[in-house]
UniProtKB/TrEMBL annotation:
Quaternary structure, from the entry: Heterodimer of a large and a small subunit.
UniProt binding sites for Fe cation: C27
Presence of keyword Protein biosynthesis: no
EC top class, as a word: oxidoreductase
Binding site for Ni(2+): C24
Domain of life: Bacteria
InterPro entries for the chain: Ni-dep_hyd_lsu, Ni-dep_hyd_lsu_Ni_BS, NiFe-Hase_large, NiFe/NiFeSe_hydrgnase_LSU
Official protein name in the record: Uptake hydrogenase large subunit
Catalyzed chemical reaction(s): H2 + A = AH2
An MF annotation (GO) of this entry: ferredoxin hydrogenase activity
Species, as recorded: Salmonella enterica subsp. enterica serovar Poona
Length: 45
């Protein structure tokens, strides 16, 4: 989606974007770089 992250290992910006579409999607999101490499994995408990 091209969302810029201020702190990549705390991706609050993308959570807000995803919540606008579906509040459940943010709990199953992977953040990847332009080359498809995973930057951070967020686990919600």
């Amino acid at each position: 989606m091209g969302t810029k992250l201020a702190v990549p290992d705390q991706p609050l910006e993308i959570l807000r974007t995803l919540h606008s579409f579906d509040p459940c999607l943010a709990c199953s999101t992977h953040v990847i770089d332009n080359h498809g490499g995973e930057l951070v994995r967020v686990q919600v408990r």
